[in-house]
Amino acid sequence: MPKILGIEIGASKIRICEEDYKAKNPKVYSSFSIDTPQGAVTDGILSVNDELAGAIRSALAEHRIRTKQVIFSVNSTKIASREVTIPFVKENKIKDLVNANVSDYFPVDLEQYEIGYSLLGTVENEGAAKQYKVLVFAAPRMVTGGYFQLAKALGLTVAALDYSGHSIYQIVRRQCGPGVQMVVKVDEISTIVTILRDQELLLQRTVSYGAEDAVLAVMADPENSASDYASAVDALRTQDCMNETVTQALSYLIGGIARVVEFFARNNSGLVIEQAYLAGVGADYVGFAEALSRGLDVPMTPFAAARGSQLERAFRDENLGEYLTCIGAAIAPIGFMPEEEGRSSMQLLPGQEDMFKICILVMVAGFVVAAALAAVALAGYHQASSENERLTERAEELEPAEEIYKEFLQERYSYQKLGYYYGTTVTPNDRLVDFIAEMEEKMPSTLNVKAFASNTTGVTMSVSVADKKDAAALIQRFRTFETVDSVEVTALTDTGAALPGQVLAEEPQVSFTVQILYKGSGDDPIPTVEEPGAEDDAASGDADGAAAESDEDILE
After folding, report:
1. How far is CA 347 from CA 4, 343, 344, 350, 459, in A?
2. Residue 154 pLDDT > 90, yes or no?
């Protein structure tokens, strides 16, 4: 069985496994991780430089890894996936069929994407032809290109690229038992939730929060002594830091996972998650599984290899869950190989007789080339030696610039992180204060607001004024608000509309509902309000013969 390197480059850790390639029960010969250089990866996009390549090269040398074939598992929100059904054709024809219809699956410029697929199973409906269920992926070349560049810098050959979600599925489907089971792989800045039934994929979603929220909370918590990222990670791995502050920092992660579970329950009536597992870096943190269990109300246990398997023996003293993507990628990768890379990796071997002739020609050519090289070697040596001295001196002169550049990368990362967190706090509902201030300035004192509701997109109010003239003036004023994008009037009732000879029991007034959309809030739904006695008012309006009128009727 050929060996291969499985590599996952995460936000804080690079994980590497040397393992069997395309084996149903792979054997892992070596597994280790190193710190990811600052700024080396952003949402799966690599910044390939000497620091990144040098760190991996040194780690491979330290662990005496000589395997030259590599497969990368890529985690990026830019990789799109879609589950489709296709006709039941021969398996070697599936790729051609997927490529022929890929423009229907992804409405993008496919020249900028690499396409891959995974065969999930078959669909058999009574009275219908048998079909395949296929998961199709589209990976931007701006993501995949960096991994081929990195492999070249390391002197490795890329066997394939895989999507991390698919890598996880390939390994957990072989380790999980029957029934409905959920595997939650919590990495540094993202989480992949996978739900299976009898080893078949039912649902997989990515949540854009991860264990890093807990790390940052530990760094900021005065109860903990961790002053930097590394010490905070070490504290989480060695002691229970899940106090109220840290648990609160995980609320976004827990909420995201909970929404995936709720979505699964709504769309799979009668199915209940029987077992939930925690994998990834989160499984290494003391108390992390318990914190998720409390927040989700679903008991979670660390993911472990099946008893008696080769993985159980390989990870007896390590966290298997942290290396799931590295192992799963080598089992049945998607591919994501550009045509030119596929052609360059093919090896066409000549016959035995031709091989003998080629060997003779190579030997003769080798003697000729060796003689020529010997003639120029001395001259080249002196020139190279002088150039080496010059470059060494130049490197020493520029050494202080390297420290400045590292400081710049750290500051830029901190700035981008703060910008990201600030961006998550800004919503259109921030305009509510400005809107109320405009109401206080521009609305008449005779306005009676009966009910009021707001959300991130707008405001809905049930109001009343003296007559239709005041109603028209009120609506016109709303449309002058700087915070308002649109105004819609509904459910208008005029209690002053009386039949001939009818005596009104109360002061006449015009009541209606006004729906206001903030500027920049898009087409999301506007909140609704229930006005006290609204049903009675509507019934009364019908009895008196008053009809609801549109906004345009009021203005006329």
Report:
1. 18, 9, 8, 10, 67
2. yes
